[in-house]
Specification:
Blueprint (H helix, E strand, L loop, with lengths): L4 E8 L3 H12 L4 E5 L12 H6 L1 H20 L14 H25 L3 E13 L2 E8 L3 E10 L3 E3 L12 E2 L1 H4 L8 E5 L3 H12 L3 E5 L11 H14 L2 E3 L3 E7 L4 E6 L5 E6 L1 E4 L3 E3 L6 H4 L22 E3 L10 H15 L13 E3 L4 E6 L2 H7 L3 E7 L4 H6 L5 E7 L5 E8 L2 H13 L4 H6 L9 H10 L7
Parallel strand pairs: 1-2, 1-5, 2-3, 5-16, 7-14, 8-9, 8-14, 9-10
Antiparallel strand pairs: 3-4, 4-5, 6-15, 11-12, 12-13, 17-18, 18-21, 19-20, 20-21
Helix pairs in contact: 1-9, 3-4, 3-6
Length: 477
């Protein structure tokens, strides 16, 4: 019998957490393998996980394309650009999205080669093992067994379906189907006004769909700072995105070419709506299917996540887990940071992830981004704070861009002036938030940001002005 291939570290899952963990482990001198089963249209390997294949990357590609289309149809005229006979080639738009995904898939395979990470295309699962070594089966085109002392689990998450309403990806869509609709639906229903619901709703609204979003919670974007969420809600409504809050979803019936949704609105009245397509985005569940967790006694928590401690250690010796399959925010960049930290801990270093400075972004237009505490959290925690805001309406670069909606908001400790949270709704919020993350990592004060010279004209001046506003001394508003 052939000896199984032996490694120091085997990573199961090639999404942001897994592929980054594998690369960092290899950089630290470990003989490393990464197993991932995602396939492209030709059954070839497509590493990058949900994020690259049906999440962050393709959604940003479509958001960009649909924004160009909307600008060409509406905003260009203001700039003196006249467009006649504007048309939409949806096939080309989707093909471009697919090519962006492919470049990312190929980029990861290249990085594995460059860093001497052995890649296995297939599904990884536990066979047996203990502190000395674990045996892992790879079920792919050819089945093989590999062994390693350290295992990093990075198996990600799957979209949560409504009970009794499975995804068929034709009429009832998860994020996967939402990124591949082949004709613009006249009427599009979205259940869930979270990140995915709002981003996908925005894409198809710009391309011509009449979009209705049904949200069970009574508040819009409850995790976002209230003032920012209110501003965003106002802007989305103005764009034509219809959001109903406090909705109780009842029966969902798929017809031949449409979907009927029965629900009770916030006022308690029974409603019925018929949509050409229905996107269901009500959260994600950890993916441990086929891992054979029970076979080796790997502990899951009551919600199905792999149970880990603060260092991402599981209950099994030398088995670690990162990303969406463990506690904490389901964000690609959180998974990456955990992947790096775990590889460094295996090497005896002290990897660290600070959950308080993980930025969040919603890539709608305007973008919404934040880091740290919201005003309602500080109130609930009884923390004395000062707030400062600055509107993009008063920012020269935003005016030149023709995108003046939204604001930057700073929250700082009333006594020490330490920055406790920064919240942005407006142009390029996803890029602007980085300054706030850096500042908070260095325990900076609002005064520190207020005193730093920012380039003029730039959107980042709004950040400086909001920091000045904490001390009630903004200069341009």
């Amino acid at each position: 019998m052939e000896m199984s291939k032996q490694f120091d570290v085997v990573v199961i899952g090639g999404g942001p957490g897994g592929y980054i963990a594998a690369i960092r482990a290899a950089q630290l001198g470990f003989n490393t393998a990464c197993i991932d089963e995602w396939k492209n249209a030709k059954n070839g390997p497509a590493p990058g996980g949900t994020c690259t294949n049906v999440g962050c990357i393709p959604s940003k590609a479509l958001l960009q394309s649909s924004e160009h289309y909307e600008h060409a149809g509406h905003a260009f005229a203001d700039h003196g650009i006249e467009v006649k006979g504007l048309g939409l080639n949806l096939g080309q738009m989707l093909a471009r999205k697919d090519s962006v995904v492919k470049q990312n898939n190929e980029g990861i395979l290249y990085l594995f080669k460059k860093n001497k990470v052995t890649f296995f295309h297939g599904r990884g699962s536990f066979v047996k093992g203990d502190a000395s070594a674990y045996e892992i089966k790879v079920a792919g085109a050819a089945e093989e067994t590999i062994t390693a002392k350290h295992i990093i689990l990075a198996t990600g998450s799957n979209p949560r379906a409504l009970p009794g309403t499975p995804f068929d990806e034709k009429l009832i869509l998860s994020n996967t189907g939402a990124l591949a609709i082949d004709a613009v639906p006249a009427k599009l229903g979205v259940i869930g006004a979270g990140v995915i619901g709002l981003e996908m709703g925005s894409v198809w609204r710009r391309l011509g769909s009449d979009v209705s979003v049904l949200e069970a919670l009574p508040t819009f974007l409850g995790a976002v700072d209230e003032q920012i969420a209110k501003e965003a809600s106002k802007l989305f409504t103005k764009q034509g995105l219809k959001v109903s809050l406090g909705v109780k979803i009842g029966a969902i019936t798929a017809g031949k070419n449409d979907v009927t949704v029965e629900y009770v609105d916030a006022a308690g009245a029974a409603q019925k709506a018929v949509y050409d397509k229905l996107i269901v985005s009500i959260g994600r569940i950890p993916n441990t299917i086929g891992l054979n967790a029970e076979g080796v006694g790997l502990q899951l928590d009551e919600r199905g996540f792999i149970a880990v401690d603060g260092d991402c250690k599981t209950n099994l010796p030398n088995v670690w887990a990162v990303g969406d399959v463990v506690r904490g925010p389901m964000l690609a960049h959180k998974a990456e940071e955990e992947g790096v930290a775990v590889a460094e801990r295996i090497a005896g270093q002290h990897g660290h992830v600070n959950f308080n400075t993980i930025p969040w972004v919603i890539y709608t237009s305007p973008e919404i981004a934040w880091v740290g505490k919201t005003e309602q959290q500080l109130k609930a925690d009884g923390v004395a704070y000062k707030a400062g805001t600055f509107p993009f309406l008063a920012n020269g670069r935003a005016r030149a861009l023709g995108d003046t909606s939204g604001m930057v908001k700073f929250l700082a400790d009333a006594k020490t002036d330490e920055i406790l949270g920064v919240h942005i709704v407006g142009p390029m919020a996803s890029e602007l938030i980085s300054e706030a993350v850096v500042a908070m990592e260095f325990r900076a004060s609002a005064e520190d940001i207020a005193r730093i010279c920012h380039a003029h004209p730039s959107l980042s001046e709004a950040t400086k002005e909001a920091a000045l506003a904490v001390d009630k001394r903004s200069l341009n508003f």
